[in-house]
Amino acid sequence: MIYEGKIVNWNCEKGFGFIVSPNGGNDIFIHRNNIKNLRGSPNPNQIIKYEISADKQDRICGVNASLVDNRFFKNSDTFISIIINILFTIILLILVFMKKLDIQILGFYLFINIATYLVYSKDKSASMRGDWRTPENRLHFLSLIGGWGGALIAQQKLRHKSKKQPFRFIFFITLFINLGVLVYIITPNAEIYLKSFIESIIPMILVVLEFMNQIKNSL
């Protein structure tokens, strides 16, 4: 008998997840090897058709499964990340045309984003095969030096590192740092603004540190 449900709680590292049936009941375990048309990782709440069997320990699991095509939801995330990259590239081109940015910087951005996407793709394949993985700090470094656009597309298209919250948090920090450096490069009198910002933020940091120290001493 063929059932239909949604995949939830998918573990990208180990390649398994659980199916929730519209009729309720317990979540049903399913391994990627039992999904015929799976490429990469399934989307959140991906619709799936499956049969029910039991493993060697007599636990209920899904088999002979196939994903129902809801590609629109998957491609929408990828489409947005591509649009962001296109808009950013257009901004860089305008800055080059206005002679506020060296064309070599534009070329570097294009190169590092392609390289970052390829590194993510390789890491995704390695995770599926159980091979040696690319260290996360290396992925963050690539984003920091300008590869955040390629990383953004890879995270959505490959469904890789897109749900790991600590990784995503650091990723966005590297993105904003890179954009901050870019703004600094193209801003006239950037040193003056940076010095003013540092001089204004240091007293605030000292106040916060003093407040935290008082809390610590009171405990």
Describe the structure in your own words.
The chain is an alpha+beta fold and about 220 residues long. The chain folds into two domains: about 60 residues, Beta Barrel (OB fold (Dihydrolipoamide Acetyltransferase, E2P)); about 120 residues, no CATH class. The chain has five helices and five strands. A five-stranded antiparallel β-sheet has the order 3-2-1-4-5, with no helix packed on it. Helix 1 crosses helix 3. The longest helix has 29 residues.
Radius of gyration: 23 Å
Q: What's the number of domains?
A: 2
Low-confidence stretches: none
Number of strands: 5
Structural class designation: alpha+beta
**Which term fits the overall shape?**
extended
Q: Helix proportion of residues, in percent?
A: 55-70%
Run of helices and strands: EEEEEHHHHH
Query: Distance between the terminal alpha carbons, to the nearest Å?
Result: 62 Å
